[in-house]
Automatic annotation (TrEMBL):
<keyword id="KW-1133">Transmembrane helix</keyword>
<protein>
    <recommendedName>
        <fullName>1-acylglycerol-3-phosphate O-acyltransferase</fullName>
        <ecNumber>2.3.1.51</ecNumber>
    </recommendedName>
</protein>
<dbReference type="GO" id="GO:0012505">
    <property type="term" value="C:endomembrane system"/>
</dbReference>
<dbReference type="Pfam" id="PF16076">
    <property type="entry name" value="Acyltransf_C"/>
</dbReference>
<feature type="domain" description="Acyltransferase C-terminal">
    <location>
        <begin position="115"/>
        <end position="188"/>
    </location>
</feature>
<keyword id="KW-0012">Acyltransferase</keyword>
<feature type="transmembrane region" description="Helical">
    <location>
        <begin position="209"/>
        <end position="228"/>
    </location>
</feature>
<dbReference type="GO" id="GO:0003841">
    <property type="term" value="F:1-acylglycerol-3-phosphate O-acyltransferase activity"/>
</dbReference>
<dbReference type="GO" id="GO:0016024">
    <property type="term" value="P:CDP-diacylglycerol biosynthetic process"/>
</dbReference>
<comment type="pathway">
    <text>Phospholipid metabolism; CDP-diacylglycerol biosynthesis; CDP-diacylglycerol from sn-glycerol 3-phosphate: step 2/3.</text>
</comment>
<feature type="transmembrane region" description="Helical">
    <location>
        <begin position="182"/>
        <end position="203"/>
    </location>
</feature>
<comment type="similarity">
    <text>Belongs to the 1-acyl-sn-glycerol-3-phosphate acyltransferase family.</text>
</comment>
<dbReference type="InterPro" id="IPR032098">
    <property type="entry name" value="Acyltransf_C"/>
</dbReference>
<keyword id="KW-0472">Membrane</keyword>
<keyword id="KW-0808">Transferase</keyword>
<keyword id="KW-0812">Transmembrane</keyword>
């Protein structure tokens, strides 16, 4: 979606190709830009490299079993190259790493772009831990292990959360809702309303309010609504190409397991006949 891509570009997202030979240079250039950034900043890393779905969780569990790793219940296997690169290049000018674990109660619907735009609220719990970046290991392999262990801790944290219904209550800190975003939104809505009012007055005074003009005025919000719906569909994790690949992998694994079971059954039957 072009509009989403433009928005990411203006917000200075770092675009990657999932090819480390090319992405390494891209990331280093991004770190160098941040070193001299004139204002305080946050750099967000989604170490899983993809959005969470049940199909991807099953694929991650199969990968963990095949590679002798601890099998997760609630998180995906982290991709550590980008994390290691960020820690090694940014520890000289970034003071801290914040680990966010996000949980949605089973009684609450998970927030989506569609639900947010429809005005639906959602209950979301955050567990946040702070690490001094200079306290992290120095070697690449040790940093990668730190990241994997962190995700296993997150998995246990989520396991306890879904069992009890909350994170450790002793760590709870209520957050105050700020009004800045509300005032900004109201300001833009007021400006748009004044613009439409001015255009309406102009059309009435000049005689430009014709059937064609009315049709255009009606068509514009309809087209914008359809575009917005298409953009919202593009954000759904269950419709992503990586999720479809994960489902296909699960189907292949299931077929292989069924074939192995049939072979075992046929072998046992042949053995019985031989006796």
């Amino acid at each position: 979606m072009k509009l989403i891509g433009w928005s990411m570009w203006f917000l200075e997202f770092v675009s990657l190709r999932r090819n480390w030979a090319k992405d390494e240079a891209t990331l280093k250039a991004a770190y160098n830009r941040l070193r001299d950034y004139p204002r305080p900043f946050w750099m967000v890393l989604f170490v899983e490299g993809t959005r969470f779905t049940e199909a991807k969780l099953l694929a991650a569990q199969e990968y963990a079993r095949a590679n002798g790793l601890q099998v997760p219940k609630h998180v995906l296997i982290p991709k550590t190259k980008g994390f290691v690169s960020a820690v090694q290049h940014m520890r000289t000018f970034v003071p801290a790493l914040y680990d966010f674990t996000v949980a949605v109660p089973k009684t609450s619907e998970s927030p989506t772009m569609s639900s947010l735009l429809n005005g639906k609220s959602a209950e979301v719990h955050l567990h946040i831990r702070r690490y001094n970046l200079n306290d992290l290991p120095k070697e690449d392999g040790e940093i990668a292990n730190f990241c994997r262990e962190l995700f296993m801790e997150k998995d246990k944290l989520l396991d306890d959360y879904f069992r009890v219904g909350s994170f450790d209550e002793s760590l709870y800190r209520p957050s105050r809702r700020t009004q800045s975003s509300l005032w900004i939104t109201m300001g833009w809505m007021l400006l748009m309303a004044l613009w439409f009012l001015a255009m309406g007055i102009w059309a009435l005074m000049t005689g430009a309010l014709t059937g064609k003009t009315i049709g255009i005025v009606i068509a514009i919000p309809v087209l914008l609504g359809l575009l917005l719906k298409a953009m919202m569909l593009s954000t759904r994790a269950d419709l992503s190409s990586s999720n479809r690949r994960a489902k296909r992998q699960q189907q292949v694994i299931a077929q292989q397991e069924m074939a192995e079971l049939r072979n075992v059954g046929e072998g046992a039957e042949n053995h019985a006949h031989a006796e």
